[in-house]
Amino acid sequence: MTIALRAEKYPYLQFEARAVEDRALSLKEGRFVAKDVDFVCITAAGGKDVVEHEVLPWLTELRRQEKHGTKTREYVDYCDRCYKAWKEGNDLPMSGTPIKGWAVLSPAEQTMVIQANIRTVEDLATANEQGMARIGMGARAMQTKARTWLESAKDHGVVAQKMAATEEALINAQSKLDEQAQTIAELTARLDALEPPKRGRRKEAA
Fold first, then answer.
1. Domain segments of the chain: what residues?
2. Judging by DSSP bridges, how do beta strands 50-54 and 12-21 pair with one another?
3. Which pTM value belongs to this model?
4. In the predicted model, is pLDDT for residue 68 greater than 90?
């Protein structure tokens, strides 16, 4: 079964502010002086290894990679949105359907998948062997459910699009018929206005 998802899998991002020594100011003041620096912790879906970067140099590098075609604009925009959401105190956007609350899996199964660091249905459907091993017993069945659900959702989406297109075509056709009826009515009124009134014949004298 083929699952048509995004070509680029998005990692899970976590941001935090850390106190980092401002070395130049510490030397100048003769004491330890710290400044807040934002860091991003990056984990691949289903993985356990965490990669950390300072946020601003990381975003700069992503934009450079976008210019060279090694990262897509969608990916860079996603990372940028996540950082802005964190700075504003909002929940980070999630790329996909969250596992948490997904009724196809039981609450216990949802917990198993999330603890394996797989947080979306899309990531479960395309999880590799490492991710499957981290989920443990029942992982294959859960992955099959995710793939089946996504295929069904895609099919429903196609049907819905066709229905919407048909409905729009009917509305447009009806609109054209209404316009034609209005045009005919206006032309009829103009013809009636141009036609001279009919005169009655005089009765001849007997």
1. 1-95, 96-165
2. unpaired
3. 0.58
4. yes
